[in-house]
Amino acid sequence: MPTGQIRKALSGFYYVYDNGKVIQCRGRGIFRNRGESPLVGDFVDYTVEGNNDGTITVIHERKNNLVRPPIANIDQAILVFSIKEPDFNTILLDRFLVVLESFHIEPIICLTKSDLMDEKLETQIREYMKDYEKIGYQLFMTYKDDPAFDEKITPLLEGKTTVLAGQSGVGKSTLLNTILPSLDLKTGVISNALGRGKHTTRHVELIEVCGGLLADTPGFSSFEFDLMEKEELYRCFPEFVVKQNDCKFRECMHVKEPKCAVKEAVDSGEIKAYRYKHYLQFLEEIMDRKPRY
């Protein structure tokens, strides 16, 4: 039975790539009965019926998968955040980073619209960049018509399956058009009333580019913590993990416990106060979540 990878899902059809061919497939009814659904990025077995029609029969085990956007087997995510219009937002960035860490997806932070910075804002943004680089995150900055853009992004894509994500209106489609001009994706216009962009991308698709696969995702503004337990949260803050063994209590939650190395690092400035504040907000959100039955 042939095996391929779902590269696009649209209107109930799955487009399976196999050795240079694309086969239009439907999923077996058994998937619906089990509450399963094939996802873009899945490796699948399929049967061929007719010239170019098929049925997906088996979904191979996934390395990871996201619910929103619905995509599987991702190596890394380029998180696109604008510096202005909409303004750079650390709590939203940390929300994305935490969820990606929980799925073992490597984040790369791309800051756009740097041409809109004044001197004061640039100083602030450079400080944030230093903070995140110290934690271990990779960052790069770009601006409109940046001649060095290809040099910045091409090496990151080779041999990887990459998801491109971020708040609406930050320039995801503009970045994709720069990488692949033939796509000619419609770029959104910022909605001043809402302070965010209009959703411009309608489906998830994996595109071959720069020796890897790149996914553009439908417009969305945040990830949720639906599947995360409170005990997992600190593991998604790499600078907390480094300090965990120095806490008095092995299962320290870094909130009210005495002799907490994380809180001591926050007090000394080694861990940034805004990151710790976001941790407490996310923890409260997880603990306030209504149980699902």
Q: Could you please describe the fold and organization of this structure?
A:
This protein is α/β, with parallel strands linked by helices and 293 residues long. The chain folds into 3 domains: 3-60, Beta Barrel (OB fold (Dihydrolipoamide Acetyltransferase, E2P)), CATH 2.40.50; 66-216, 3-Layer(aba) Sandwich (Rossmann fold), CATH 3.40.50.300; 230-287, Ribonucleotide Reductase Protein R1, domain 1 (Orthogonal Bundle). Helix content is 30%, strand content 26%. A 6-stranded mixed beta sheet has the order 10-9-8-11-15-14, sandwiched between helices. Strands 1-2-3-5-4 form a 5-stranded mixed beta barrel. A hairpin with a 4-residue loop joins strand 12 and strand 13. Helix 2 crosses helix 9. The longest helix has 17 residues, at 119-135. GO terms for molecular function: GTP binding; GTPase activity; metal ion binding; rRNA binding. Keywords: Cytoplasm, GTP-binding, Hydrolase, Metal-binding, Nucleotide-binding, Ribosome biogenesis, RNA-binding, rRNA-binding, Zinc. It is found in: Cytoplasm.
